[in-house]
Amino acid sequence: MRAFLGFMFFSTFEGIAxxxxxxxxxxxxxxxxxxxxxxxxxxxxxQNYFIREEFLLSSVxxxxxxxxxxxxxxxxxxxxxxxxxxxxxxxxVGIAVIQSGxxxxxxxxxxxxxxxVHLWKQYSVQCITGxxxxxxxxxxxxxxxxxSFDFDKLRLKWEHxxxxxxxxxxxxxxxxMMYFREVFLNLLVxxxxxxxxLIYSFKKEDxxx
Length: 209
Fold this sequence. Notes:
This protein is mainly α. 78% of the residues lie in helices and 0% in strands. It contains 9 helices and no strands. It is globular and about 50 Å long. The chain crosses the membrane at residues 6-26, 33-50, 56-77, 89-110, 122-141, 161-178, 184-202.
């Protein structure tokens, strides 16, 4: 239980960093979607926790995280799927750069080997990543820096139906992988996450009409 709570809590800092970078840099107010972002981060962390010991699934976890984030940005924030994917990649590349910098400038103190031996060092890197990612993103947004695009120019025809189809294919593909790896609980969490995003999207769409 202690390991689970530690994983969930400190991984949230990484998630906040990823969303801060991906949204603030592109002039999107993260705070406006605060509770939705935290919910998605929690669901991503949960599925990451359950597959962390499964090599096959853990190796594709970054792809799953990027796609989940892209679907969230598309269905909830209403960004076209192409831009949503770009923003997701930027966010996760951003935290990779931040963590690489932390490890490099620590001169071995926060090395990968040290993090494996001392769990608190891993947690420290995650906390620092969250603080740096959010701070940099917020400062850029606050002072008007970043990239502003007309996202709708890249919105595809029938995009909503295409995204729903992609989600269905994504769920089936990941579901089959999890079934054969016998990670049933993670499958339930994953399906719940996608359904929650879809339900929220439909409710928001109805409210806007």
